[in-house]
Amino acid sequence: MKFYGSKEGNDTEVLIDCKAVLEKKDFVTTGVLTYALGDIIEVEVPQFDVFQLGDKVKMTVYSKSGLFVFDTTVVAKELGSVIVINPPENRKRFTEKREFPRVNIQQDGLLHSLHDVQKRNKHLFENPVVISIKNISMNGVGFSIYENSIVERIVEKHLHLHVELDLGFSLPCVTEIVRKEVKESGIYYGAKYIEVPESKMNALRAYILKNQIETYFVAKKEEQSKNALEKKSVVNQ
What we know:
It comes from Paenibacillus aestuarii. The protein is of the alpha+beta class. The protein has three helices and 13 strands.
């Protein structure tokens, strides 16, 4: 990746509405960067249909903080826009509220054991406890426990949990509870990963990326529908 301009204090907001050039073999087009968060960037381009999923492209962004040039890959597209990967080396140039994007999901998992590292106590459940996964990122997971008040009482901050997440593939991992919050729907736990199999990291990254793209497109369509209704309401007044 090449960069020209200020390297410090950039926020992803400086990229929004900037001119962006996408270039692949024998084709160049200019558009507007409309979204940048976590692993994905959206560019609105009139010739979106020229691009195919998996195309390798060079992207040039003309921002107020300087000129950004990097290689990336097309991972999604819809009418009028394409989604490309925001490479890690490019993300490092900008500050975000979260180091990794968190996506909301509805999946289940199993809690196999608890480990109090300080007291050196470990409890293995004879029957694994079902957990409900609420969100996930590359550095942690949020979940609640299915109707098991006894387990809820003993799961506290700083405990290590051996869990198995069902994400369409099995992801066994060790997590540490960093947050416990009582909500109307039950007790919510936020945990960070302590151990994740290296062989599962690519699958986890792909799963999060897929959900991030789907979530973004759903939110975008809802926003477009809302704007269309508001515009129609104004016209009818």
